[in-house]
Amino acid sequence: MPFQFEKGEILLINKPYTWTSFDVVGKMRSVIRQTTGIRKIKIGHAGTLDPLATGLLILCTGKFTKRIEEFQGLEKEYTGTFFLGATTPSFDLETKPEGILPVGHITPEVILDTAKQLTGTFDQVPPLFSARWIDGKRAYTYARQEINREIQARQVTVSAFGITRIDIPEVDFRIVCSKGTYIRSLARDFGEIMSCGAHLIALCRTRIGAYYLRDAYEIKDLEEQIRTETPC
Questions:
Q1: For 156-187, how does the pLDDT look when each residue is reduced to its tens digit (9 = 90+)?
Q2: Residues 86, 199: Cα–Cα separation, whole Å
Q3: CA–CA separation, 74 and 228 (whole Å)
Q4: Which residues touch 137 (CB under 8 Å, ≥6 apart)?
Q5: How far apart (Å, rounded) are the C-alpha atoms in residues 131 and 147?
Q6: CATH dotted code for 76-208
Q7: Which of 72, 138, 146, 181 is at a distance of 20 to 30 A from 224, taking alpha carbons?
Q8: Rounded to an integer, what is the distance from CA 218 to the centroid of its chain?
Q9: Catalytic-labelled residue, pool 23, 50, 123, 189
Q10: pTM given for the model
């Protein structure tokens, strides 16, 4: 059945590395316009992924854009890797490492205990390198100008924090969490608790509610399917 973009579609996409979530929205808007002749199409994403993250991004089109807030509120699941022994201003690889610290005291038992400490409901301070609004500007605008601004903590819930590989200085994880949880902030907190510093070096969103990455399109494959299913 042909896509019904104006009536509403839910598109599951595997966001490529270095693409912003808005890059994906712009690309799909362009594809829809070119293939269907629809000049004005509502389209938006339901939950930002950082450029250096990959994984599941939900796009809504047409009348289904009214459901974006519904999808944003769903539980999320991520896998990824922390690097121990160094911090970065952005808590990931967007900025260069600083604050190099020893990791000789870190054992698997310490790592597992730290994950337990970061499981549950607690207040989390988002990264300044984030899309949070501060006085009418995105927080990252201040961060990239090296202007330090206070950013308010928000309550989040981490319902599962599993450690899947330990190869110090790298630690792989699986995290299930609520809306608004920043995995980069968990990397910061993870390193602070162990007094060794840490930052995020890989992140993939594998699930949003009942929607899974395994069911998502690669962008090129979705583009080809849209072209194939659109009547000439």
A1: 999 999 999 999 999 999 999 999 999 999 99
A2: 7
A3: 32
A4: none
A5: 15
A6: 3.30.2350.10
A7: 72
A8: 17
A9: 50
A10: 0.90
Going 118 to 119 to 122 to 128, the CA torsion angle's sign is positive
Which residues belong to CATH 3.30.2350.10 in the chain? 10-73+210-229, 76-208
CA distance 130 to 196: 23
Q: How far apart are CA 195 and CA 99, in angstroms?
A: 11
In the CATH scheme, what is the code of domain 10-73+210-229? 3.30.2350.10
